[in-house]
Model the fold of this input.
Amino acid sequence: MFESKSIIKQNQFGVYCRTGQEMDIDVEAKESYRSMVLTNFDSALRNTYPLTLRALEEEKWTEFIHGFVLSFKCQEPQFWKMPFSLISHEEKSQWGVENNYNWLNDALRFEWSQFELFYRKDWEPVYLKGFNDDLNVQLVLHNEFEVVQLTYPIHNEKWDDIEEHQGPYFILLYRDQDDFTVKMMELTPFLAVLTEQLSIQPDTVANILENILVQNEIEPTDEIFQFCLEFISKLEGIQLVKGMK
Amino acid sequence: MSNNKVGLGLRREIALEICDIEDSRPDFLELAPENWIEVGGYWRSILSRVAEKYSFTAHGLSLSIGSTDPFNFEFLKKIKDFLDEYNIDIYSEHLSFSTCDNAHLYESLPVPFTGDAVKHISERIRTIQDFMERPLVLENITYYTVLEAELSEAQFFNKIAEESKCKVLLDVNNIFVNSQNHNYDPRKFIEEIALENVNYVHIGGHEATEDGLILDTHGQKIIQPVYELFNEVIRELPDSVPVMLERDVNFEDFNDLKEDMSEIRTILDSSSVNV
Ligand SMILES: [Fe+2]
Done:
């Protein structure tokens, strides 16, 4: 690494802009630069986490965000992806738990998933046959969805008494294939597992279903199979199931 | 039909309007690859529509050429693929640093104008040019502090361009803003900078704060003294180069932008007639 006096000064200035920690050298307008850096972080995070901001309120939000900028070294070159780092920071620092915001991690994950899904890279379409109610085939789902497990009902938007309504809740967030907006659907734990397994297991619906039933010690019945078929056609209706292999 | 090219920044706020412009269309659009790489959904669909009608130049945000942090080659490869995908020749960036102590700051911070920095930055530019397989075009930024100055800013640019063979993106508004904030004659900068290295020009509006500082907010119409400076630059430039109107905020009146673009074009055309 190249280290001359002037470049050391540059680095001290850069560290000051992120941390606000005083340095030995004097740099004119350093406070303005620090405030520009903080404003950049703050405005992007407000935009990504509006519900969290509302619930924390200004003073606590600022404390949380300033702590993040100070202690978390963001590695993300794309500014729009930067807000994800706030989750990594929170998981490490446990600021939420320490300040009695037990719902904070749920809130950040939920809001990030909504945000990220809107921007997520498109699924590459492939040629597929349509699903014909045959469970002995492998389904293909696109990847513009996320099943988020929450302890607190973040998805209900009214967060009064949120601590008293502990879940678990399973929320399917997905990008509408026609208008690109992010929509949600509440799932039962069973359907949450089924959705996830259908998207990751290279196996037939029947085998996937059977495994889940065995693991949960549930007796397979015609009703269960019928119920699953209905759910899959619902996923097909929202175009999450794209077809079969 | 003149060869002069007048471009506009592709901002999300005006992307739809840009798609539908009938008259006074920009000749090209400038975009920040970081804002579009791995973006799908609604904005990808808009980008595809825009790309059918316009060619692009790129103005990157994350390179941090002045930093002592190592480059992120994995991400640079994504930028390169993006440039290739959209046939982008001009890959411009800021002569500044935006990462430090292994962290992104998402802000262009000034580097010291010293011989050491020339050496350090030139070496990094050569690495990038080899990797990207195109020249790097570096922009003069606005700065509110001078960390150290063994050289003037123009001399600093000249030395870097000489050592690294990079190109220069001359931001006329930034020259004006810096000259006001640091009390010097902007013409002196133009006289001093080696204009043969310039292959891209930015022009835009700015804003004065109550305490007398001028900020390059790119939210206003271009003011007359900046046009005058631009006119001088254009007359001095050995070749015709693309010129991009920068507007980052205040999009309420798209006609403002059209008027600025048309004024830029008038200046360009009148200078080519005189040649
Ligand atoms: Fe610029």
Notes: The first strand of chain B starts at residue 6 and ends at 9. The pocket of fe (ii) ion is lined by residues B 139, 171, 202, 246 (CB under 6 Å). Chain B touches chain A at residues 34-35, 37-45, 61-62, 66-68, 72, 75, 97, 99-107, 109, 111-112, 114, 116-117, 119-120, 123, 144-148, 213 (CB under 8 Å). Chain B is about 40% helix and 20% strand.
